[in-house]
Here is the input.
Amino acid sequence: MRKFLCVLALALISLPALAQDEGMTLQHANINLSNTASLQRGAKFFVNYCMGCHSARYVRYNRVGKDLGLTDVQLESYLMLAGGKASDTMVSAMPQADAKKWFGIPPPDLSLEAESRGTDWIYTYLQSFYLDPKSATGVNNVVFPHTAMPQVLWELQGTQKAIFTTVKNPDGSTYEVFNRFEQVTPGKLTPEQFDKADRDITNFLAYMGDPIAIKSRDLGLKVIGFLIVFFLFAYLLKREIWKKIH
Ligand code: HEC
Here is the structure.
């Protein structure tokens, strides 16, 4: 058992080190699930820039509308771009078979993506596309090398190239380590605005993966508030009762 724990500890310690080796230090997404405006913007980005290929099959439009404080009219004009019913789930119009033909791999459902990859991963992934003439899509990605996904946010982010440093092994062989990005053409957004848009999209994906998180937080705060008030009353009552006994 102890041996097993040692191996487990070593494996956990070496995981971030491995990630470092590949030059893919993840950036902090710094999302905030209680920021409704950010979630609303994220939802809008999601339907405009992601749902052309990806679905969120476990998420219903009317649930999103309710959680994000949208009226039925806002929901329809903001998010339900392809029409349909408010009770429909967020399914992409792209047929899976075609998607597979075009990209070689169907774009995965993103309902639970934040749960499986983590928000820092998604946030960094969306920032890390770079021009690569050798790739079929014209881009590659530092976080997910050779991803079949094109750079769908290029209009907002602009294009960038990746600078790699060549590192020599003791045996003379070499490998490349990611160093930094250099902007090639500007996008519609400044880098700061793009980070914010990326954070909003990531926030929305996190919400989809755990829609009750918003509610649990609210409930938690209410319960704590109730306990504080209750404690105050209990304390005053105790004082009152003991006063008489003395
Ligand atoms: C033009 C089609 C297309 C669009 C639009 C698109 N994607 Fe993708 N996406 C793909 C494909 C294809 C893959 C599969 C990549 C692979 O496995 O190599 C993918 C993979 C991903 C992954 C990684 C999934 C995993 O865990 O392996 C994430 C995260 C993702 N997309 C997020 C997004 C977000 C967020 C948007 C909107 C801003 C978006 N995608 C828009 C085609 C697209």
The radius of gyration is 24 Å.
